[in-house]
Amino acid sequence: MFTSLSVVCILTLLQLSTTCISSHTQLQGTLHRRNYFYIGEQYVNTPGTNNGSEIAFGQIYVEHLVPATVTQSLPVLMIHGHGMTGTNFLNTPDGRLGWADYFMNQGFEIYIVDQPSRGRSAWQMGVDGNQSDFDATYISSHFTAVEKFNLWPQAALHTQWPGNGTAGDPIFDNFYASTMPSLVSDKESSIKVKKAIGKLLDDIGPVILLTHSQSGQYGWILGDFRPSLVKTIIALEPIGPPFINAVFPPLTPARPFGLTEIPVTYSPPISSSSDLKPEIVLALTNASLGTTCFRQAAPARQMVNLKEIPTLVVTSESSYHAIYDSCTVEYLAQAGVPVTHVELADVGIKGNAHMMFMEKNGLEIAEKVVLEWIQNTVNK
């Protein structure tokens, strides 16, 4: 259980001693050791020079959090979504404990990354691709105040964001200030994530992989790339649906390999994305909501490297993902992936939108859905 102390105690990495400081917000945290490192860098000539000078690119920042008492055999590796950084999981914008602290309290080591060319993982001008960012209205209308904009039917059910979710509210302002420019190309991001986080997995060994939103496709990529090192995938509203964007125009083709921008292993093998033959699933298609659901035409090729990785997809009640995550799950199941879909409203957890782990009932989701999945699937 969390302590009732009105101070925060930090076990420093270098001194291995306990320091207690007053906390104005009275956060009650888990005693832990913190370290960080970088991995995945490559050297290239400094753009615009020919004198042999080099710079590093492609590296990722990795934060390693170790509770004073580790009771779980596998660490949790957390990967954030588009426009975000690993700070998403540290604490909430209104100062409550985040998922990193919750899972440390349950005895898990935690690894949190910043995606390549994002946040504390340097973007190199002239080497890395173009970037884009989210404006404040986008964040409010898609994530934090969706009930005020009603861009999709379920948005009206949103109740769990702390504060009013718009610019000028101090909780929103704190959250929006944490957003970062991101690579425009999901293909470029996928290639860099595969290299850098693949190397991280080689170094740290097997993990519980937790993804959110844009990083959902990285779960399938990393599970395919290092199947023996990914023991389960927990995908919080993973990017989708297959083959095409949904809900928000333009509804353009995307993820040509089904759920990913870059190739993953299929059986029978494919030589290009055109070997996958999409067909419409009428039961999961809703043109009025901007969603066309595709699966493979039978017989479906199998995502063979994911067939031994138990996978959980979690969908909030009031998120735009409520419209199409079932299509993503259908694609995974047809391709032989052992997938379970938990829609939070079905287990009595209501009112959440896309940033569920930051919302007022975020720890309830961690305990009743994610931890329970780990205990029943990985720790059984």
TrEMBL record:
Residues 76-366 form the AB hydrolase-1 domain. Residues 1-22 form the signal peptide. The keyword Kinase does not apply. GO terms for molecular function: hydrolase activity. CDD domains: Esterase_713_like-2 (cd12809). Keywords: Hydrolase, Signal. This is Alpha/Beta hydrolase protein.
